[in-house]
Protein backbone atom coordinates (compact mmCIF):
# COMPACT_ATOMS: atom_id res chain seq x y z
CA UNK A 1 0.00 0.00 0.00
CA UNK A 2 1.44 3.32 -1.04
CA UNK A 3 1.63 6.26 1.32
CA UNK A 4 -1.07 8.11 -0.68
CA UNK A 5 -3.48 5.17 -0.43
CA UNK A 6 -2.78 4.80 3.29
CA UNK A 7 -3.55 8.47 3.87
CA UNK A 8 -6.81 8.09 1.99
CA UNK A 9 -7.79 5.04 4.04
CA UNK A 10 -7.06 6.87 7.27
CA UNK A 11 -9.05 9.91 6.12
CA UNK A 12 -12.01 7.72 5.18
CA UNK A 13 -11.86 6.00 8.58
CA UNK A 14 -11.73 9.34 10.38
CA UNK A 15 -14.70 10.65 8.38
CA UNK A 16 -16.71 7.51 9.17
CA UNK A 17 -15.96 7.83 12.88
CA UNK A 18 -16.93 11.50 12.86
CA UNK A 19 -20.17 10.69 11.05
CA UNK A 20 -20.93 7.91 13.54
CA UNK A 21 -20.37 10.24 16.49
CA UNK A 22 -22.41 12.99 14.88
CA UNK A 23 -25.26 10.56 14.27
CA UNK A 24 -25.18 9.45 17.90
CA UNK A 25 -25.20 13.08 19.04
CA UNK A 26 -28.21 13.83 16.86
CA UNK A 27 -30.36 10.83 17.78
CA UNK A 28 -29.25 10.10 21.34
CA UNK A 29 -32.48 11.23 22.97
CA UNK A 30 -34.41 8.85 20.74
CA UNK A 31 -32.24 6.08 22.15
CA UNK A 32 -32.69 7.21 25.77
CA UNK A 33 -36.39 8.02 25.85
CA UNK A 34 -38.75 5.36 24.50
CA UNK A 35 -42.22 6.75 25.15
CA UNK A 36 -45.51 5.26 24.12
CA UNK A 37 -46.93 8.56 22.86
CA UNK A 38 -50.46 7.30 22.22
CA UNK A 39 -53.24 8.90 24.27
CA UNK A 40 -54.26 6.77 27.23
CA UNK A 41 -57.87 5.86 28.10
CA UNK A 42 -59.80 7.56 30.86
CA UNK A 43 -58.28 6.84 34.25
CA UNK A 44 -61.43 5.30 35.74
CA UNK A 45 -61.70 2.81 32.86
CA UNK A 46 -58.33 1.36 33.87
CA UNK A 47 -58.29 2.06 37.61
CA UNK A 48 -61.75 2.17 39.20
CA UNK A 49 -62.03 5.33 41.25
CA UNK A 50 -59.06 7.04 39.61
CA UNK A 51 -59.20 10.60 38.28
CA UNK A 52 -57.73 12.22 35.19
CA UNK A 53 -55.78 15.31 36.26
CA UNK A 54 -53.81 17.98 34.43
CA UNK A 55 -50.39 19.24 35.46
CA UNK A 56 -49.13 22.63 34.28
CA UNK A 57 -45.37 22.89 33.83
CA UNK A 58 -43.32 26.03 34.36
CA UNK A 59 -42.63 26.18 30.61
CA UNK A 60 -46.30 26.08 29.72
CA UNK A 61 -47.14 22.44 28.95
CA UNK A 62 -50.31 20.70 30.12
CA UNK A 63 -49.56 17.11 31.07
CA UNK A 64 -52.01 14.32 31.73
CA UNK A 65 -51.69 12.22 34.88
CA UNK A 66 -53.79 9.82 36.96
CA UNK A 67 -54.63 10.23 40.64
CA UNK A 68 -55.98 7.40 42.77
CA UNK A 69 -57.04 7.31 46.42
CA UNK A 70 -57.55 4.19 48.53
CA UNK A 71 -61.22 3.23 48.64
CA UNK A 72 -63.19 4.16 51.74
CA UNK A 73 -60.39 5.64 53.85
CA UNK A 74 -57.95 8.48 54.12
CA UNK A 75 -54.54 7.68 52.66
CA UNK A 76 -51.68 6.94 55.04
CA UNK A 77 -49.43 8.79 52.58
CA UNK A 78 -49.33 9.87 48.95
CA UNK A 79 -46.89 8.41 46.43
CA UNK A 80 -45.62 10.40 43.45
CA UNK A 81 -44.66 7.76 40.87
CA UNK A 82 -42.11 8.72 38.19
CA UNK A 83 -41.84 5.99 35.58
CA UNK A 84 -38.92 4.69 33.59
CA UNK A 85 -37.89 5.65 30.08
CA UNK A 86 -40.48 3.51 28.27
CA UNK A 87 -44.23 3.13 27.94
CA UNK A 88 -46.73 5.42 29.65
CA UNK A 89 -48.80 5.60 32.82
CA UNK A 90 -51.20 2.87 31.73
CA UNK A 91 -48.38 0.37 32.23
CA UNK A 92 -48.01 1.49 35.86
CA UNK A 93 -51.71 1.03 36.65
CA UNK A 94 -51.19 -2.37 38.39
CA UNK A 95 -48.63 -0.74 40.70
CA UNK A 96 -51.03 2.09 41.50
CA UNK A 97 -53.82 -0.38 42.25
CA UNK A 98 -51.67 -2.33 44.68
CA UNK A 99 -50.40 0.79 46.42
CA UNK A 100 -54.00 1.98 46.82
CA UNK A 101 -54.94 -1.42 48.28
CA UNK A 102 -52.12 -0.85 50.77
CA UNK A 103 -53.79 2.39 51.88
CA UNK A 104 -51.79 4.89 49.82
CA UNK A 105 -52.87 7.59 47.38
CA UNK A 106 -50.96 7.59 44.10
CA UNK A 107 -50.17 10.09 41.36
CA UNK A 108 -48.99 8.43 38.14
CA UNK A 109 -46.96 11.01 36.25
CA UNK A 110 -46.40 10.88 32.50
CA UNK A 111 -43.55 13.02 31.22
CA UNK A 112 -43.72 15.29 28.19
CA UNK A 113 -43.97 13.20 25.04
CA UNK A 114 -45.45 10.23 26.93
CA UNK A 115 -49.08 9.09 27.02
CA UNK A 116 -50.42 11.73 24.65
CA UNK A 117 -48.60 14.59 26.36
CA UNK A 118 -47.07 17.40 24.29
CA UNK A 119 -43.36 18.14 24.13
CA UNK A 120 -40.15 16.17 23.81
CA UNK A 121 -38.38 14.57 26.80
CA UNK A 122 -35.03 15.76 28.10
CA UNK A 123 -33.33 15.94 31.49
CA UNK A 124 -34.36 19.56 31.93
CA UNK A 125 -37.88 18.86 30.73
CA UNK A 126 -38.43 15.93 33.08
CA UNK A 127 -37.29 18.08 35.99
CA UNK A 128 -40.01 20.59 35.11
CA UNK A 129 -42.58 17.81 34.73
CA UNK A 130 -41.97 16.28 38.14
CA UNK A 131 -42.13 19.72 39.74
CA UNK A 132 -45.54 20.22 38.17
CA UNK A 133 -46.61 16.93 39.77
CA UNK A 134 -45.20 18.06 43.12
CA UNK A 135 -47.07 21.38 42.93
CA UNK A 136 -50.29 19.57 42.12
CA UNK A 137 -50.01 17.33 45.16
CA UNK A 138 -48.87 19.96 47.64
CA UNK A 139 -51.01 22.89 46.43
CA UNK A 140 -54.16 21.36 44.97
CA UNK A 141 -54.36 18.15 47.03
CA UNK A 142 -52.81 19.79 50.11
CA UNK A 143 -50.51 16.86 50.78
CA UNK A 144 -48.07 17.87 53.55
CA UNK A 145 -44.38 17.09 52.88
CA UNK A 146 -44.42 14.77 55.88
CA UNK A 147 -46.94 12.54 54.07
CA UNK A 148 -45.41 12.58 50.61
CA UNK A 149 -43.32 9.74 49.21
CA UNK A 150 -41.40 9.64 45.92
CA UNK A 151 -41.16 6.48 43.84
CA UNK A 152 -38.71 6.42 40.94
CA UNK A 153 -38.52 3.53 38.46
CA UNK A 154 -35.13 3.25 36.71
CA UNK A 155 -34.82 6.59 34.86
CA UNK A 156 -37.51 7.90 37.20
CA UNK A 157 -35.09 7.30 40.08
CA UNK A 158 -32.96 10.10 38.64
CA UNK A 159 -36.00 12.34 38.27
CA UNK A 160 -37.20 12.00 41.87
CA UNK A 161 -33.71 12.10 43.37
CA UNK A 162 -33.10 15.47 41.76
CA UNK A 163 -36.52 16.69 42.96
CA UNK A 164 -35.76 15.52 46.51
CA UNK A 165 -32.79 17.88 46.71
CA UNK A 166 -35.16 20.84 46.35
CA UNK A 167 -38.29 19.38 47.94
CA UNK A 168 -37.34 16.62 50.43
CA UNK A 169 -40.09 14.01 50.84
CA UNK A 170 -40.96 11.89 53.84
CA UNK A 171 -39.41 8.92 52.04
CA UNK A 172 -37.75 7.99 48.77
CA UNK A 173 -37.90 4.68 46.92
CA UNK A 174 -35.51 4.11 44.02
CA UNK A 175 -36.16 1.04 41.89
CA UNK A 176 -33.19 -0.08 39.76
CA UNK A 177 -31.31 3.25 39.94
CA UNK A 178 -28.10 3.77 37.99
CA UNK A 179 -24.98 5.68 39.05
CA UNK A 180 -25.46 8.17 36.20
CA UNK A 181 -26.75 7.92 32.67
CA UNK A 182 -23.28 7.69 31.14
CA UNK A 183 -22.49 4.64 33.27
CA UNK A 184 -25.50 2.82 31.80
CA UNK A 185 -24.76 4.07 28.30
CA UNK A 186 -21.21 2.78 28.50
CA UNK A 187 -22.58 -0.69 29.23
CA UNK A 188 -24.82 -0.58 26.14
CA UNK A 189 -22.44 1.24 23.79
CA UNK A 190 -18.94 0.27 24.94
CA UNK A 191 -17.44 1.34 21.61
CA UNK A 192 -18.58 4.97 21.93
CA UNK A 193 -17.24 7.82 24.14
CA UNK A 194 -20.66 8.05 25.79
CA UNK A 195 -19.62 10.28 28.68
CA UNK A 196 -18.22 12.83 26.25
CA UNK A 197 -21.26 12.84 23.97
CA UNK A 198 -24.22 12.73 26.34
CA UNK A 199 -26.45 15.79 26.63
CA UNK A 200 -28.48 14.44 29.56
CA UNK A 201 -26.48 13.39 32.61
CA UNK A 202 -28.80 12.33 35.46
CA UNK A 203 -26.10 12.05 38.17
CA UNK A 204 -28.09 9.88 40.57
CA UNK A 205 -25.30 8.67 42.84
CA UNK A 206 -23.82 12.13 43.31
CA UNK A 207 -27.20 13.64 44.13
CA UNK A 208 -28.30 10.74 46.34
CA UNK A 209 -25.20 11.23 48.49
CA UNK A 210 -26.46 14.71 49.35
CA UNK A 211 -29.89 13.57 50.53
CA UNK A 212 -30.89 13.16 54.14
CA UNK A 213 -34.26 11.43 53.81
CA UNK A 214 -35.32 7.85 54.61
CA UNK A 215 -34.62 5.85 51.46
CA UNK A 216 -35.00 2.34 50.08
CA UNK A 217 -33.33 0.99 46.95
CA UNK A 218 -34.95 -2.03 45.28
CA UNK A 219 -32.77 -3.96 42.85
CA UNK A 220 -33.18 -7.07 40.75
CA UNK A 221 -30.33 -9.49 41.25
CA UNK A 222 -30.14 -10.27 37.51
CA UNK A 223 -31.00 -6.88 36.05
CA UNK A 224 -29.76 -6.92 32.46
CA UNK A 225 -30.33 -3.19 31.79
CA UNK A 226 -29.06 -1.46 34.92
CA UNK A 227 -26.21 -3.48 36.44
CA UNK A 228 -27.15 -4.42 40.04
CA UNK A 229 -23.73 -3.18 41.15
CA UNK A 230 -24.74 0.35 40.13
CA UNK A 231 -27.94 0.20 42.16
CA UNK A 232 -25.95 -1.00 45.16
CA UNK A 233 -23.58 1.96 44.74
CA UNK A 234 -26.54 4.34 44.81
CA UNK A 235 -27.91 2.65 47.93
CA UNK A 236 -24.57 3.02 49.70
CA UNK A 237 -24.26 6.67 48.68
CA UNK A 238 -27.76 7.45 49.97
CA UNK A 239 -27.35 5.36 53.14
CA UNK A 240 -30.49 3.60 51.93
CA UNK A 241 -31.91 0.25 52.93
CA UNK A 242 -31.22 -2.22 50.12
CA UNK A 243 -33.91 -4.68 49.04
CA UNK A 244 -32.46 -7.11 46.52
CA UNK A 245 -34.74 -9.56 44.75
CA UNK A 246 -32.65 -12.55 43.63
CA UNK A 247 -33.03 -13.60 40.03
CA UNK A 248 -35.20 -10.63 39.02
CA UNK A 249 -34.57 -8.88 35.71
CA UNK A 250 -35.31 -5.22 34.99
CA UNK A 251 -38.87 -5.63 33.71
CA UNK A 252 -39.93 -8.77 35.55
CA UNK A 253 -43.37 -8.48 37.20
CA UNK A 254 -41.86 -8.72 40.69
CA UNK A 255 -40.02 -5.45 40.03
CA UNK A 256 -43.04 -3.77 38.48
CA UNK A 257 -45.66 -4.35 41.16
CA UNK A 258 -44.55 -7.35 43.23
CA UNK A 259 -45.16 -7.74 46.97
CA UNK A 260 -41.57 -6.93 47.92
CA UNK A 261 -41.79 -3.65 46.02
CA UNK A 262 -45.12 -2.65 47.58
CA UNK A 263 -43.88 -3.54 51.04
CA UNK A 264 -40.74 -1.46 50.46
CA UNK A 265 -42.95 1.55 49.72
CA UNK A 266 -45.10 0.87 52.80
CA UNK A 267 -41.99 0.73 54.97
CA UNK A 268 -41.40 4.42 54.21
CA UNK A 269 -44.80 5.59 55.46
CA UNK A 270 -44.26 7.83 58.50
CA UNK A 271 -45.55 6.32 61.72
TrEMBL record:
Keywords: Membrane, Transmembrane, Transmembrane helix
UniProt KW Aminoacyl-tRNA synthetase keyword: no
Start and end residues of each Serine aminopeptidase S33 domain: 74-182
Membrane-crossing segments per the record: 6-27
InterPro entries per the UniProt record, alphabetical: AB_hydrolase_fold, Hydrolase_4
Record flagged with keyword Hydrolase: no
Protein name per its UniProtKB record: Serine aminopeptidase S33 domain-containing protein
Organism the protein comes from: Amycolatopsis rifamycinica
